[in-house]
Protein backbone atom coordinates (compact mmCIF):
# COMPACT_ATOMS: atom_id res chain seq x y z
CA UNK A 1 0.00 0.00 0.00
CA UNK A 2 1.31 3.46 -0.96
CA UNK A 3 -0.26 6.28 1.04
CA UNK A 4 0.20 10.02 0.46
CA UNK A 5 -0.01 12.03 3.70
CA UNK A 6 0.72 15.76 3.83
CA UNK A 7 2.96 16.74 6.78
CA UNK A 8 1.38 20.17 7.22
CA UNK A 9 -2.07 18.63 7.76
CA UNK A 10 -2.02 14.82 8.24
CA UNK A 11 -5.30 13.19 7.16
CA UNK A 12 -6.56 11.33 10.26
CA UNK A 13 -8.45 8.82 8.12
CA UNK A 14 -5.15 7.76 6.54
CA UNK A 15 -3.41 7.82 9.93
CA UNK A 16 -6.09 5.44 11.26
CA UNK A 17 -5.48 3.07 8.31
CA UNK A 18 -1.77 3.01 9.17
CA UNK A 19 -2.47 2.48 12.88
CA UNK A 20 -4.72 -0.51 12.07
CA UNK A 21 -1.85 -2.10 10.10
CA UNK A 22 0.49 -1.59 13.07
CA UNK A 23 -1.99 -3.03 15.58
CA UNK A 24 -2.32 -6.10 13.36
CA UNK A 25 1.44 -6.72 13.57
CA UNK A 26 2.19 -5.04 10.24
CA UNK A 27 5.21 -2.99 9.22
CA UNK A 28 5.45 0.43 7.57
CA UNK A 29 7.96 2.85 6.08
CA UNK A 30 7.41 6.46 7.09
CA UNK A 31 9.05 9.90 6.98
CA UNK A 32 10.94 11.37 9.93
CA UNK A 33 12.91 14.59 10.35
CA UNK A 34 16.00 12.80 9.02
CA UNK A 35 15.88 9.77 6.69
CA UNK A 36 12.87 7.57 5.97
CA UNK A 37 12.49 4.73 8.46
CA UNK A 38 11.02 1.25 8.70
CA UNK A 39 9.01 0.44 11.79
CA UNK A 40 6.26 -1.38 13.63
CA UNK A 41 4.39 -1.21 16.94
CA UNK A 42 7.31 -1.68 19.35
CA UNK A 43 5.12 -3.72 21.70
CA UNK A 44 3.78 -6.09 19.02
CA UNK A 45 5.89 -9.26 18.92
CA UNK A 46 4.88 -10.20 15.36
CA UNK A 47 5.79 -6.78 14.01
CA UNK A 48 9.12 -6.68 15.85
CA UNK A 49 10.11 -10.13 14.59
CA UNK A 50 9.37 -9.01 11.00
CA UNK A 51 11.60 -5.94 11.33
CA UNK A 52 14.48 -8.00 12.74
CA UNK A 53 14.02 -10.55 9.97
CA UNK A 54 14.10 -7.87 7.24
CA UNK A 55 17.25 -6.39 8.72
CA UNK A 56 18.85 -9.84 9.10
CA UNK A 57 19.63 -9.37 12.78
CA UNK A 58 18.90 -11.32 15.93
CA UNK A 59 16.58 -9.63 18.42
CA UNK A 60 19.11 -10.15 21.24
CA UNK A 61 21.88 -8.39 19.31
CA UNK A 62 19.82 -5.60 17.77
CA UNK A 63 20.37 -2.00 18.78
CA UNK A 64 16.92 -0.98 19.86
CA UNK A 65 15.50 2.45 18.98
CA UNK A 66 11.93 3.52 19.61
CA UNK A 67 9.89 6.60 18.75
CA UNK A 68 7.94 7.99 21.68
CA UNK A 69 5.06 10.44 21.51
CA UNK A 70 6.47 13.01 23.95
CA UNK A 71 8.93 13.57 26.80
CA UNK A 72 6.63 12.15 29.49
CA UNK A 73 6.23 8.98 27.41
CA UNK A 74 10.02 8.37 27.46
CA UNK A 75 10.09 7.60 31.20
CA UNK A 76 7.87 4.57 30.59
CA UNK A 77 10.64 2.85 28.64
CA UNK A 78 13.88 4.41 29.90
CA UNK A 79 15.37 5.63 33.15
CA UNK A 80 15.71 9.41 33.01
CA UNK A 81 17.36 11.60 35.68
CA UNK A 82 17.02 15.38 35.93
CA UNK A 83 20.18 16.19 33.93
CA UNK A 84 19.19 13.81 31.15
CA UNK A 85 15.69 15.25 31.07
CA UNK A 86 17.09 18.78 30.61
CA UNK A 87 19.13 17.62 27.58
CA UNK A 88 16.12 15.82 26.09
CA UNK A 89 13.91 18.87 26.61
CA UNK A 90 16.38 21.18 24.85
CA UNK A 91 16.75 18.94 21.79
CA UNK A 92 13.45 17.13 21.26
CA UNK A 93 11.45 16.97 19.07
CA UNK A 94 14.43 16.84 16.72
CA UNK A 95 16.74 14.65 14.60
CA UNK A 96 18.42 12.84 17.48
CA UNK A 97 18.64 9.32 18.86
CA UNK A 98 19.39 9.49 22.60
CA UNK A 99 20.81 6.37 24.25
CA UNK A 100 19.39 5.84 27.75
CA UNK A 101 19.32 3.02 30.27
CA UNK A 102 16.35 0.78 29.49
CA UNK A 103 13.65 0.49 32.14
CA UNK A 104 12.19 -2.83 33.24
CA UNK A 105 8.87 -1.77 31.69
CA UNK A 106 10.13 -2.74 28.26
CA UNK A 107 8.40 -5.96 27.17
CA UNK A 108 10.01 -9.38 27.57
CA UNK A 109 11.12 -9.54 23.96
CA UNK A 110 13.67 -6.83 24.82
CA UNK A 111 14.74 -8.37 28.12
CA UNK A 112 18.42 -8.61 27.14
CA UNK A 113 18.63 -4.88 26.38
CA UNK A 114 20.52 -2.70 28.84
CA UNK A 115 20.00 0.48 26.81
CA UNK A 116 17.38 1.89 24.48
CA UNK A 117 17.62 4.55 21.78
CA UNK A 118 14.88 7.18 22.09
CA UNK A 119 13.52 9.30 19.21
CA UNK A 120 10.91 12.06 19.08
CA UNK A 121 11.15 13.22 15.46
CA UNK A 122 10.06 16.72 14.50
CA UNK A 123 7.62 15.34 11.92
CA UNK A 124 3.86 15.69 12.25
CA UNK A 125 3.06 12.47 10.34
CA UNK A 126 5.01 10.10 12.58
CA UNK A 127 3.94 12.05 15.69
CA UNK A 128 0.28 11.56 14.70
CA UNK A 129 0.84 7.82 14.13
CA UNK A 130 2.51 7.26 17.51
CA UNK A 131 -0.12 9.32 19.33
CA UNK A 132 -3.00 7.46 17.69
CA UNK A 133 -1.33 4.07 18.19
CA UNK A 134 -0.76 4.68 21.90
CA UNK A 135 2.51 2.68 21.77
CA UNK A 136 6.01 3.59 20.65
CA UNK A 137 7.28 2.57 17.20
CA UNK A 138 10.31 0.35 16.80
CA UNK A 139 12.35 2.28 14.23
CA UNK A 140 15.22 1.51 11.86
CA UNK A 141 16.55 3.81 9.13
CA UNK A 142 16.00 2.86 5.49
CA UNK A 143 19.53 2.60 4.13
CA UNK A 144 22.01 0.45 2.21
CA UNK A 145 24.91 -0.81 4.31
CA UNK A 146 25.19 2.43 6.30
CA UNK A 147 24.79 4.56 3.18
CA UNK A 148 21.88 6.84 2.49
CA UNK A 149 21.43 7.06 -1.28
CA UNK A 150 18.86 8.60 -3.61
CA UNK A 151 16.21 5.90 -3.43
CA UNK A 152 16.18 6.19 0.37
CA UNK A 153 14.99 9.81 0.16
CA UNK A 154 12.36 9.41 -2.60
CA UNK A 155 9.19 7.69 -1.31
CA UNK A 156 8.22 6.37 -4.75
CA UNK A 157 11.61 4.68 -5.18
CA UNK A 158 11.38 3.36 -1.62
CA UNK A 159 7.98 1.85 -2.47
CA UNK A 160 9.41 0.18 -5.60
CA UNK A 161 12.14 -1.47 -3.54
CA UNK A 162 10.23 -2.37 -0.36
CA UNK A 163 6.60 -2.90 -1.42
CA UNK A 164 6.91 -6.67 -0.94
CA UNK A 165 8.58 -6.35 2.46
CA UNK A 166 6.29 -3.92 4.28
CA UNK A 167 2.54 -3.43 4.45
CA UNK A 168 2.55 0.29 3.72
CA UNK A 169 4.89 3.02 2.52
CA UNK A 170 3.90 6.57 3.46
CA UNK A 171 4.73 9.33 1.01
CA UNK A 172 5.34 12.37 3.19
CA UNK A 173 7.51 14.15 0.63
CA UNK A 174 11.24 13.86 0.03
CA UNK A 175 13.27 12.80 3.06
CA UNK A 176 16.66 14.08 4.18
CA UNK A 177 19.77 12.14 3.21
CA UNK A 178 21.52 12.62 6.53
CA UNK A 179 20.77 10.40 9.55
CA UNK A 180 20.09 11.43 13.14
CA UNK A 181 22.79 12.46 15.56
CA UNK A 182 23.24 9.61 18.07
CA UNK A 183 24.02 10.77 21.61
CA UNK A 184 24.79 8.50 24.58
CA UNK A 185 23.61 10.23 27.75
CA UNK A 186 24.04 7.28 30.11
CA UNK A 187 27.35 8.69 31.46
CA UNK A 188 28.27 11.89 33.27
CA UNK A 189 28.70 13.83 30.02
CA UNK A 190 26.82 13.45 26.71
CA UNK A 191 28.88 11.47 24.17
CA UNK A 192 28.16 11.92 20.47
CA UNK A 193 28.46 8.46 18.90
CA UNK A 194 27.49 9.65 15.42
CA UNK A 195 27.23 13.24 14.21
CA UNK A 196 24.25 13.53 11.93
CA UNK A 197 21.77 16.24 11.04
CA UNK A 198 21.12 17.36 14.64
CA UNK A 199 23.35 19.90 16.43
CA UNK A 200 23.29 19.04 20.13
CA UNK A 201 22.39 21.76 22.66
CA UNK A 202 23.41 21.16 26.30
Q: Which labels suit this protein?
A:
single chain; 202 residues; 27% helix
Describe this structure in words.
Helices cover 27% and strands 22% of the residues. By secondary structure, the protein is α/β, with parallel strands linked by helices. Strands 1, 2, 3, 4, 5, 6, 7, 8, 9, 10 and 11 form an 11-stranded mixed beta sheet that branches. The longest helix is centred in the first third of the chain and has 12 residues, at 12-23. The model has no long low-confidence stretch (mean pLDDT 89).
* Secondary-structure content class: alpha/beta
Low-pLDDT parts are none
The helicity comes to 25-40%
**Content of β-strand:** 15-25%
Shape: globular
The string of secondary-structure elements, in order, is: EHEEHEHEHEEHEHEEE
Tally the helices: what do you get? Answer: 6
Distance between the termini: 41 Å
Characterize the largest beta sheet: strand count, sense, and whether it forms a barrel. 11 strands, mixed
Rg to the nearest angstrom? 16 Å
Total beta-strand segments = 11
Mean pLDDT: 89
In short:
27% of the residues lie in helices and 22% in strands.
Topology, element by element:
Layout: E1 2-4, H1 12-23, E2 28-30, E3 37-41, H2 45-55, E4 65-67, H3 71-74, E5 78-79, H4 82-91, E6 96-102, E7 115-119, H5 124-133, E8 137-141, H6 155-162, E9 168-171, E10 181-184, E11 191-194
Parallel strand pairs: 1-9, 2-9, 4-7, 6-10
Antiparallel strand pairs: 2-3, 3-8, 4-8, 5-6, 6-7, 10-11
Helix pairs in contact: 1-5
Amino acid sequence: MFVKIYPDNPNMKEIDRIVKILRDGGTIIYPTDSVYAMGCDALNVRGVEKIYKYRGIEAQKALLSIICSDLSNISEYARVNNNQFKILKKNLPGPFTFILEASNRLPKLYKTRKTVGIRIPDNSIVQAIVEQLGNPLLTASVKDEDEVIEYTTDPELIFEKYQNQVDAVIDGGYGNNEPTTVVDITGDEPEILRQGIGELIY
